[in-house]
Amino acid sequence: MSTPGHVSDRDLSLYQLLRPEVLADPYPLYRRLRTVDPVHWDPYLHAWVVTRYADVVHVFQLFSADRTPSPEQLAAMGMESLGPIAAVMVKQMLFLDPPAHTRIRTLAASAFTPRRVERMRARIEGIVHRLLDSVQDRGRMDVIADLAYPLPAIVTAELLGIPVHDWPTLIGWSADFAGVLGNFQHDPDRTARVVRSLDEMTTYFREHMHRQVREGGDGLVHALAAAEVDGGRLTEDEVVANSIITMVGGQETTTNLIGNGVLSLLRHPDQLDRLRRDPSLIESGVEELLRYESPSQQTARMAPADVDLGGRRIKRRQAVIAVMGAANRDPERFPDPDALDVGRQNNRHVAFAWAGHYCFGAPLARLEGRIAFAALLRRFAELRLDPDAELTWRQNLGLRGLVALPVRFSPVR
Amino acid sequence: MVPAAFVVLDALPLTASGKVDRAALPPPNRQNEPAAEPGSPLEERVADLVAELLGLPAVGVDQDFFLLGGHSLLGAQLITRLRDTYGVELTLQGLFDHPTIGAIAAEIERMVVERIESLSDDEVEALLA
Question: What is the ipTM of this complex?
Answer without folding.
Answer: 0.72
